[in-house]
Structures are given as structure tokens and as C-alpha cells.
Amino acid sequence: MPKDNRKNLNTARRVKSQAQKKTKWRTTGLLALAGLLFIALFFMLSRPQAKSLDAVRLADNPSLGSASARVTIVEYADFGCTSCRAWHNAGILDQIRALYGDKVQFVWKDFPVITAQSPKAAEAGQCAFDQGKFWEYHDLLFAKAPALGVSNLKDYAIQVGLDSTKFNQCLDSGQNQAKVDQSLNEAQRQYAFPGTPSFLVNGKKLIGPPSFETLKSTIDAILAEG
Questions:
Q1: SS in 3 state form for 37-62?
Q2: Fewest CB atoms less than 10 Å from the CB: which of 118, 182, 186, 202?
Q3: Which of 180, 207, 31, 194 is nearest to 117 (CA)?
């Protein structure tokens, strides 16, 4: 075979071999991508499906005291926040409720911005609220913080006597994420609170954890207005 023909033949073989390798790698890549998509689809389908929250649930918040109270205190707080926990442990809310009784209502809203675990802990609190045991769960989360991983949150649900199947379904599905996001958006966009905890007293901003004396004087001034 002439030298030029052999050279052309070798070149053709080399080009064909390179083309085959490219095709092989392309096929391998497509198969790997298909595998990843299948795995992602499997986990999406196996995840519990969340139910859409209606307007009534979105407007509902954990509260203590009468809805007809003359003074409403709203706390925007985070279960992973050390200042929130310290304010809770100081017992200021208990003192206020003991002093004013039905004249004061206290409302909790989520402001989960302190730790990576805070948003899921906020959802867990709302899942406990769905079963009528928010405050028991609220107290336990503050007692156990900073252990707020998903497995911890599920263990605490059992400890306060929640239906664990319903709770886990609620938490795993992100059932109450929309509710948590609603309160978070209020705190950040509507009120521009700089941090947690932050408070509203009859709609008036009160930033930072107030002392008993500060909260008492604020309430007294509102009550004195008649």
C-alpha cells in the first residue's frame, strides 16, 4: 500500500477512534445525569406532601390571654436566639400576666434568623400549635436549645405528648413553612426589626427584650389612656 494511503488510513482510524470516545463519554454523561434526575425525582415523590395553608390558618398565631384584651403584646422571636431564651427564662411574661390578667394578651410570631436550624425549629413550633401544644413545646425548645436539629425536634414532640406521626408528617413536608415565612417577612419588611427578640405593644414597636419595668410602664400608659 502506498505510503500516503497508509497515512490517510491511520488518520481516518484515529479520527474514528476519537469520535467513538467522545460518543462514549457523551453517553456516559447522559446516563449519569439521568440517574441523578431519577434520584432527585424519587426523593421528591417520597417526601410527604404539604397541604396548602388557608387564610384562617395563616392568620392564626399562638397566644396567651383574651383576644379582647386592651393590650396586645406581640413577640417576634427565634428558638435559636440566646437573648430570646434569656428573656423567657427571666419570667417577665409570667409577671406581666400575673399582674394584668385578662387586660393583656401575648402573641408569639416567628423571626427565625439566628441559626441555620432556626427556620425548621419555627416550623416545628407551628406543627405543635396545630396539635394544641405550642406553649409546652415552646418551653421545651428553649430548655433544650441549642440542640435544635430535626431529630431533636422530633424527639421533643414525643416528650410533650404530641402525635409523632402527624408531627413528623407536618415537619418533613414543610407544612408550615408559609406561616413561618409570613411572620419573618412581617418582622423584616413591614417593621424592619434589627434583631430578635423584638416586640409590638398595641402595634407600637419595642425593640429588644424589655425589662419588667419597661413593659409595665408601657402597659400602664396604654391603660391610663382609657
A1: HHHHHHHHHHCCCCCCCCHHHHHCCC
A2: 202
A3: 180
d(CA 73, CA 177): 23
Give the type of residue at 220.
Answer: D
The pTM assigned to this predicted structure is 0.78
How far is Cα 107 from Cα 5, in angstroms, rounded to an integer? 89
Check: CB of residue 216 under 8 Å from CB of residue 96.
yes
Where do runs of H (alpha helix) occur along the chain? 3-46, 55-59, 82-89, 92-100, 118-130, 134-144, 150-159, 164-173, 177-185, 212-224
Q: Which long-range contacts (CB under 8 A, 24 or more apart) does 211-214 make?
A: 211/92, 212/92, 212/95, 212/96
Q: Which has the closest alpha carbon to 104: 128, 68, 135, 131?
A: 68
Q: pLDDT tens digits for 179-205?
A: 999 999 999 999 999 999 999 999 999
Phi/psi for 76 (5° steps) reads -100, 110
What is the C-alpha to C-alpha distance for residues 173 and 191, in angstroms, rounded to an integer? 29
CA distances to 79, 101, 151, 176 from 172, in Å? 18, 38, 11, 10
Cβ–Cβ < 8 Å for 105, 121: no
DSSP bridge pairs for 106? 64, 73
User: Per this entry, what is the length of the chain?
Assistant: 226
pLDDT digits (tens, 9 = 90+) for 88-120: 999 999 999 999 999 999 999 999 999 999 999
